[in-house]
Structures are given as C-alpha cells and as structure tokens.
C-alpha cells in the first residue's frame, strides 16, 4: 500500500467510512499483533491487546496528524497498551504476594498462639490432643497407647478443646 492510498483511507476513516478502517486493519493487524506479542510474550494477551489497539485507533483516528503514517501510529498505540498491561500485571502480582505474605504471617502467628496454649494444658489432655491431632492417630490407637478406652479419648479431646479455647480467649483479652 502506498502512502497516498493510506492517506485516502485515513481521510475516509475520519469521515466515518468503516470500510476504509477495515482496509487499514487488514493491512496492519499482523504488525499490531507482532508489537503486542514482542512486549507481553503471550499469544492470548497479545491478541487482546492488538484488538484493543485497533479499536482505540478507530476511535482516535482524528488524533492522527496529517502527514503521519497510520502503521507506526497504530503500532505505537499497541506498544503503549502492552506496556500498560505489563505494569498492571506487575502491580497485581505484587499485591497478591503481599496478601500471601500476610496470610503466612497470620498462620505462623496463629500456630505459635496454639502451641503456647497447648503447653498450658494439663499433661493428660496435652498428650491426648498431640497424639490425635498432631500425630494423626486414630481414637482407638490413642486409647491403646494411653491404656484408656476410646470413649475416654473422646472425652479428653472434648475437654482439651474447651480448655484451649479458654486459654486462647484469655490470652487475646490480655494482649488486646
């Protein structure tokens, strides 16, 4: 396509001729995709960005200064959109990483609170709860190891959980 016919197509676009823009799109769509892909490195995202750039070009065709060529202009739009996309991705990834770090800190803190509370349990309950929850033993196995009935294991677990709740609530009241 020569510069003269490109200028005619741009002039037609400015008058609202959609066929003129379709001709420009068919000429430059590959270039717009290539620019987008070179920045983002992902086919799916590059296709989305290329489509957005071509739409933006149609809407902003009046901003193309007379004498400027459409190809470099639309490719610059695509490049800028691709860079903006990467910036947003980076921001989202940083926010997700911060949330994940906060969750890890909370779970670590929760674990330490629970660990301290377990240490404050009576030995009978502490032993039962550690065997059942932390060693993953079945009720029957805990009963056998402690030489008690399975019903007694369940009773001790219930009492241990109740005591843990009280210990943790009391600790939070004194801390907060």
Structural features, described:
The chain is mainly alpha-helical and 176 residues long. It has 2 domains: 3-93, Rna Polymerase Sigma Factor, Chain: A, CATH 1.10.1740; 94-175, Arc Repressor Mutant, subunit A. It contains 7 helices and no strands. α3 (43-59) crosses α4 (70-119) and α5 (123-134) packs across α7 (150-175). The longest helix is centred in the middle third of the chain and has 50 residues, at 70-119.
Keywords:
mainly alpha, Rna Polymerase Sigma Factor, Chain: A, 176 residues, 2 domains
Question: Helix and strand layout, with pairings?
Answer:
Elements: H1 3-14, H2 18-40, H3 43-59, H4 70-119, H5 123-134, H6 139-146, H7 150-175
Helix pairs in contact: 1-2, 2-3, 2-4, 3-4, 5-7, 6-7
């Amino acid at each position: 396509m020569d510069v003269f016919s490109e200028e005619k197509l741009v002039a037609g676009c400015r008058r609202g001729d959609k066929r003129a823009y379709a001709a420009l799109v068919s000429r430059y769509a590959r270039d717009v995709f290539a620019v987008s892909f070179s920045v983002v490195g992902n086919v799916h995202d590059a296709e989305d960005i290329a489509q957005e750039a071509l739409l933006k070009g149609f809407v902003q065709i009046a901003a193309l200064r007379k004498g400027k060529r459409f190809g470099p202009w639309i490719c610059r739009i695509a490049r800028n959109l691709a860079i903006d996309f990467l910036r947003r991705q980076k921001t989202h990834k940083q926010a997700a990483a911060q949330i994940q770090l906060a969750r890890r800190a909370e779970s670590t803190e929760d674990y330490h609170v629970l660990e301290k509370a377990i240490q404050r349990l009576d030995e009978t309950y502490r032993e039962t709860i550690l065997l059942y929850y932390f060693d993953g033993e079945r009720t029957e196995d805990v009963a056998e190891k402690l030489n008690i009935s399975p019903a007694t294991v369940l009773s001790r677990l219930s009492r241990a959980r109740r005591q843990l709740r009280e210990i943790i609530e009391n600790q939070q009241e004194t801390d907060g």
